[in-house]
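Task 17 of the worksheet. Students: predict the tertiary structure of the chain below and write it out as structure tokens. Keep your answer in the requested format; marks are given for formatting as well as content.
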Amino acid sequence: MTEKPEPGVPLHFVVKTRLIELLDQLGEGAALPPERSLAKDFGVSRWTMRQAIRELTADGRLRARQGQGTFVATPKLIQPLALVSYTEALRAQGHDPGREVVGFDQIPADAVLAASLGIAEDDAVYRLERVLLADGQPIGLETTYLAVERFPTLREVLRPTGSLYRCLTDDLGVRFGEGEEVVETVIATPREAELLKATQSLPMLLLNRISRDTDGRTIETVRSLFRGDRVGFRATLRP
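Model answer:
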């Protein structure tokens, strides 16, 4: 029987805490017992159990597989908030990185994009949109904008499924100096949710970054949308 929660603490939160202990015992990849039996064992209603399971799924601790059940999820991928290659950061954690190209075209810069890239309005801009993969599964959707005038040979030297960071540094001689990144939570659009194989109710983390070289010139602006159940971020803070 689940203990009575303290005043002001929702019952499903107590259930959620006890479920986490159960997940640790079951281990990664194990199937979660049926909701009905869990509710009976915990002495709560199925609605309360369902709410706790729903929150643990949103937190990335559980993963539902249609027609199969709910399973203990693998730990979240923790990405550094730093000017490093996505490929290298993922490999350092023992995962296989990958990318699927959604689009690679040229567009005229609007006023906001022109200001962020330090170019004139209507100047040509590369727009590279790719689904980011970890072990073959989509975890993020990244859209990068770069000035065509500054990188006229980008299409010739970039492998669309390869590391853009590595291409810019090794092939085009760019030296990254600093970046500014803003992180917020958002709800995915229907298109974004479809590309990330997620539901629109799943929390997403949105990162907007401007990267500059060692001379202070803007290299790129990047919009990255990540599944909140699969990815977390780490920053090193110093006084």
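Marker's comment: Helices lie at 11-26, 35-42, 46-58, 86-91, 111-117, 154-157, 164-171, 190-195. The two ends are 48 Å apart (CA to CA).
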